[in-house]
Amino acid sequence: MAAPHAAPRRHHPSIAQASRVFRDACKMTPLAYLTKFRIIEMARLLRETDLTIAVITRRLGWNSPESSVTAFACHYGVTVRLSSQRSIIRLRSRAGRRRRPRREKC
């Protein structure tokens, strides 16, 4: 029997259970959600500021510019440099669809 002054025990979900609940609610894993958020925010910062990719990468929590550029290319189907030439960032944000299918390594 617990001591009378002890706080009642509360159920805390495991990491796996919390991930399942998140996936059921958002239709994607927490990591996929975070990556998508970072990519969309990266596109916005590229479009609206003169910040470098290295600065944007640090701001958004990626470990390296290479990982952010790779994720961007997988999501939009073009490189960051090509996206600025073609204004793919604006097209993607309005249309909500990729220009090309994802590559296998993404």
From TrEMBL:
SMART domains: HTH_ARAC (SM00342). Residues 20-86 form the HTH araC/xylS-type domain. Pfam families: HTH_18. This is Helix-turn-helix domain-containing protein. It comes from Kocuria carniphila.
